Task: inverse folding
């Protein structure tokens, strides 16, 4: 379970960023969330990685 949030993380030089929030299940069954800010071309890589 993950979602991509695109906010105002843009710069004028053309590089676009996206904030990726990933839900990670712990050993106890609870979920913790990890946030990363990555370039838009790496979003699918980050979501596919475990």
Result:
């Amino acid at each position: 379970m993950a979602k991509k949030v695109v906010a105002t993380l843009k710069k004028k030089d053309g590089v676009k960023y996206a904030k990726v929030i990933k839900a990670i299940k712990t050993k106890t069954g609870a979920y913790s969330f990890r946030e990363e800010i990555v370039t838009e071309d790496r979003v699918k890589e980050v979501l596919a990685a475990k």
Notes: Strands lie at 2-5, 17-25, 31-39. Helices lie at 43-48.
